[in-house]
Amino acid sequence: MRLCHFMTLDFKTHNMNEIKIFCPATIANLSCGFDVLGLCLDNVGDEMVIRKSDKKGIRITKLVGADLPLETEKNVAGVAALAMLEALNSDAGFDIEIYKNIKAGSGIGSSAASSAGAVFGINELLGRPFEIKDLVPFAMQGEKLACGNAHADNVAPALLGGFTLVRSYSPLDIIKIESPSELYATVVHPQIELKTSDARSVLKQTVSLKSAIMQWGNVGGLIAGLYTKDYDLIGRSLHDEIVEPIRSVLIPGFDLIKRTALGNGALGSGISGSGPSIFALSKGEATAKQIAKAMSAVYDEMKLPYEIHVSKVNPDGVRIL
Amino acid sequence: MRLCHFMTLDFKTHNMNEIKIFCPATIANLSCGFDVLGLCLDNVGDEMVIRKSDKKGIRITKLVGADLPLETEKNVAGVAALAMLEALNSDAGFDIEIYKNIKAGSGIGSSAASSAGAVFGINELLGRPFEIKDLVPFAMQGEKLACGNAHADNVAPALLGGFTLVRSYSPLDIIKIESPSELYATVVHPQIELKTSDARSVLKQTVSLKSAIMQWGNVGGLIAGLYTKDYDLIGRSLHDEIVEPIRSVLIPGFDLIKRTALGNGALGSGISGSGPSIFALSKGEATAKQIAKAMSAVYDEMKLPYEIHVSKVNPDGVRIL
């Protein structure tokens, strides 16, 4: 699939001076997989336009939809792009326009979408000096700027699509796992901002061996469920012993939203990334939409503003528009 | 495969009064999967003969090759069998002969082989009231007697074959994973006894979040490697952040044996179960045999008596002879 896709693009991007891309939102952690698992959404994301420039380096020339820094070294897309150009020892220059739809601090990979988009787009315009997987470390530099921690669990699925497992950070080893075709995500974003750095600071630095064993049992189960397309096993494995009990108290209505999702047929539900968004996974779009309706009713009742999305898993990651 | 096998056995075991079975050794933990992962060996194991008796209950009538209790309530096979009969509310009676080849305290599932064999054999003689997977909780009662902890990571692979993942203990949820066909194990057993209960007592009850994350990344990687038959990924994932650094000091020559295995082509190497046996996994029998030779040279040099085994992964678990 990806190869065919690329063969077409090779023709399209050859001598291209400008590229317009879709930069998908992502759900990291996925209950049991804190810091290692993530999935890519299909219809939620930003857009970026990247143009070759005669002037060396990276400039953020336009930023629509968010109040974020334009200065290259303070912008996640800028930092990720600079890391890539530095690795190439390149004199190339690029102007980047960012059209944000994903709100910063929503917990669905807003900074990752920009970081991943920047390095993906520049890689295309340069004639693809890197494999997509090799772009992950550059995009991680954007994450480091955003939250102080160069985590890969959002940028990896944003770049590669599907589900991704960060088996190891040192050395970086990322495994892509295809999503079962009927798997859908519902994501609700209550309109409070929760910074990743704050959500990390509440975590304990030690965990009980017993909880850790339960967690890695569930990670194993989730991976097995994805390979065997066993939706029930996926659901049984979407359980978080360690982070959710601590972080969920920061999210208004978390327990009720989760119970509502499960009561409406979700396979599982938990905190998306570091929150405050809450995700549910379902078999089939109809169930995912039903869950969206039920979640909406909860936050309507609480008079809490929210955004809500229903999306299948995006198999390919960032794409050219 | 299993179904065809059973159809033949159905005929053979109908009205059968006696059964002779092979009860395989197993490797639990497999580096990253402490308390959740295990695999079944093919040519290392005990034999048992089980006979229907007119006398209600379970008797261990013969025990060859080990100095273990004959008293039913003190014998792991007896305890597992009694748990099963109790669940069935059965008045049936059985005499069990056990021919041990797996040494107690070797770390390759000696008690699990007896517990699994007993419940498998009696299930056959009773006309299979239980699915094989449903025998695991009874066999776990034998493990509880042996080491104070009803763990499933040896009895599950002994009963089901291949690799098994204990996703959850409560409720018990066991996933069987087929082994890639070229995967071989080398297991060396230095002749010191290390009780599971002692090997457990050295463990710390809390672990750092960072180590736990590395561990569940590797569990995910190992499961992904098994499903995709990616031998390199299996090897990269066979890493233990948490237990091996603590337990390995109890095993003479551990570091050298592990380095030797890796230097001779092993995908990975670690402590088998709670030790003192050390396992290595390889792609192909030739490599596994070469590793056995090199490990032997290490213990020969140290003048430490040992047993050594090379085995492919047993796809089916306990089998009728």
UniProtKB/TrEMBL annotation, chains A, B:
Residues 79-162 form the GHMP kinase N-terminal domain. Residues 223-300 form the GHMP kinase C-terminal domain. It is found in: Cytoplasm. Pathway: Amino-acid biosynthesis; L-threonine biosynthesis; L-threonine from L-aspartate: step 4/5. It holds the Pfam family GHMP_kinases_C. It catalyses: L-homoserine + ATP = O-phospho-L-homoserine + ADP + H(+). Keywords: Amino-acid biosynthesis, ATP-binding, Cytoplasm, Kinase, Nucleotide-binding, Threonine biosynthesis, Transferase. The keyword ATP-binding applies. The keyword Transport does not apply. One of its GO terms (molecular function) is ATP binding. Its EC number is 2.7.1.39. Signal peptide: none annotated. InterPro entries: GHMP_kinase_C_dom, GHMP_kinase_C_sf, GHMP_kinase_N_dom, Homoserine_kinase, Ribosomal_Su5_D2-typ_SF, Ribsml_uS5_D2-typ_fold_subgr. GO terms for biological process: threonine biosynthetic process. GO terms for cellular component: cytoplasm. SUPFAM superfamilies: GHMP Kinase, C-terminal domain, Ribosomal protein S5 domain 2-like. Belongs to the GHMP kinase family. Homoserine kinase subfamily. HAMAP family: Homoser_kinase. Catalyzes the ATP-dependent phosphorylation of L-homoserine to L-homoserine phosphate. This is Homoserine kinase. It comes from Flavobacterium frigoris (strain PS1). The lineage of its organism: Bacteria, Pseudomonadati, Bacteroidota, Flavobacteriia, Flavobacteriales.
